[in-house]
Write a structure and sequence with these properties.
With 146 residues, this protein is mainly alpha-helical. The protein contains five helices and no strands. The chain has a domain of 97 residues.
Length: 146
């Protein structure tokens, strides 16, 4: 596969993500670090994540959008790895190249995994808050105060 075709494939994969169009022009075929350069959208504020008391639908919508952004970044990284693997088969040292491609993918996915874990923790805390509020409401309606 020629370098121009490979660069075009990487550019296409990266241009699918918003805001990456300009960077897609400078993608090098040897690296997959471009997805790491742009972090996922910021997670909800960890200190006071639900301070303004948004509706449950709004919170779930924000979480869903963040999960979709992470999934889009993950798919771009995987697509870039697949393109790099195809290019590896043109090299003499195929196994070394494939190993490097896997290593680069793992390094690029590690920050996404951390963001996903943080998002899961925030969602759990929000669900616990909601459960506690429902229990307090039930207890106050029943006349039992803890």
């Amino acid at each position: 596969m020629t370098r121009a075709l490979l660069s075009g494939c990487c550019s296409l994969a990266l241009s699918l993500l918003p805001g990456w169009g300009a960077q897609a022009q400078t993608v090098q075929t040897e690296t997959l670090t471009a997805p790491m350069a742009h972090p996922a959208p910021p997670l909800l504020d960890a200190q006071t994540p639900w301070a303004s008391n948004p509706s449950p639908n709004e919170v779930l919508e924000v979480i869903t959008r963040q999960r979709q952004a992470l999934a889009a970044q993950r798919s771009a990284i995987v697509q870039a790895e697949q393109v790099q693997q195809v290019a590896c088969w043109q090299n003499f040292a195929v196994n070394v190249c494939l190993s490097d491609a896997r290593l680069t993918r793992r390094q690029a996915l590690a920050p996404l995994r951390q963001q996903e874990l943080a998002l899961n923790a925030q969602e759990r805390s929000w669900r616990n808050e909601q459960r506690e509020r429902r229990l307090q409401t039930k207890q106050s309606e029943a006349g039992v105060v803890p």
